[in-house]
Amino acid sequence: MTTREASHAGSWYTDNGPTLSKQLQSWLDAVPTSIEDISPIPQPGARIIIAPHAGYSYSGPAAAYAYKCLDLSKCKRIFLLGPSHHLYLPTLALPEATLKTYSTPLGPLPLDTTTLSTLRSTNLFSTLDLDADEAEHSLEMHFPYIHHLLSHSHPSSNLPPLVPILVGSTTPSTERRFGTLLAPHLADDRNIFIVSSDFCHWGLRFNYTYYLPSSSSSSSSTTATTTNNNNNIASGISLPKPTRKSSSSSPAPPTNPPIHQSIARIDKACIEAIETGDHDAFLKVLLETGNTVCGRHPIGVVMAGMEVVRRERGEGEKEEGRGRFKFVRYERSSDVRNVGESSVSYASAFAVL
């Protein structure tokens, strides 16, 4: 039986099982039982989340907000969708058919070989070979959280199996095609969906220095709420690289607002678009800002699938907020003030469907 090793354990997160379990639980315990107008947490019926996938020292606490919202009471399987960082992929990929388990420092996670076989039979998916699988971190960074939560809600000998899906650089039409394919699984209240994504990767090392001038909608708060003040998000500029000759020949860093507040506004525009539940609205903001949301394609696939489910169930659910993401946490790895600095943003959300 082939097993995918926990290749990032010991570097991106601890490889010591007891230490890892205590760490995860401490972050979960730090999440309040209510967030603004959201109560209680966990949210009844919350089966879909967006959570970050950076090293745990950066994004572990933020991810806990999404995982704490999950309702696992009916869970029979978990779909995990993450972006491809290293392998060029124009479509979606499934693990090798010989792969049966994913290893974690907390114990193995079984794969749902039956569901994976059904998906492979569509001939729409590529195959993710084991080397590429183990090189990718966007899926693996969720395995410990998944195992930790499942081991507290299910017998360790009978954990709900995993359906891992790697999402490549997909077009909007491809996202809609796979969203339609996954819609029946999204509609099944026994299924959990986890979408792996960080948000803005800002800085010269990411080739992204988009900056928005001062606006009343600039925000650096740790929670995200929907407003309608992002009408000018396409009016920004790319900040130039500082010169090396002398400090006097380089422009002073912008302060109105500071760069980190501009980053927050760019992220907030994406967050608000996602919260509308409109796949096209999210694509529009990405086009206008170029925001480097690394999980934009898996988010797009799931948003497209949720749109299908909402249409099939009728628009009456709109008033209840069902089938749309609600963000509960927003953080950045640092507050950028100079063009030579960089940061990565982390956001967590849940949806009831």
Description:
There is one protein chain. It is built from nine helices and 14 strands. The chain is α/β, with parallel strands linked by helices and 353 residues long. A hairpin with a 6-residue loop joins strand 5 and strand 6 (109-110). Helix 7 (259-276) packs antiparallel against helix 8 and helix 8 (279-289) runs antiparallel to helix 9 (296-313). The longest helix is centred in the last third of the chain and has 18 residues, at 259-276. It is globular, with a radius of gyration of 20 Å. The relative contact order is 0.18.
Highlighted features:
353 residues; alpha/beta; 18% strand; globular
At a glance:
This protein is of the alpha/beta class and 353 residues long. 33% of the residues lie in helices and 18% in strands.
In the predicted model, the low-confidence regions spanning at least 5 consecutive residues are: 216-229
Radius of gyration: 20 Å
Helical content band: 25-40%
Largest sheet: 9 strands, mixed
- How would you state the average pLDDT, rounded? 91
- Secondary structure category: alpha/beta
Termini gap:
35 Å
DSSP E strands, number: 14
Number of helices: 9
Strand content: 15-25%
Oligomeric assembly: single chain
Shape: globular
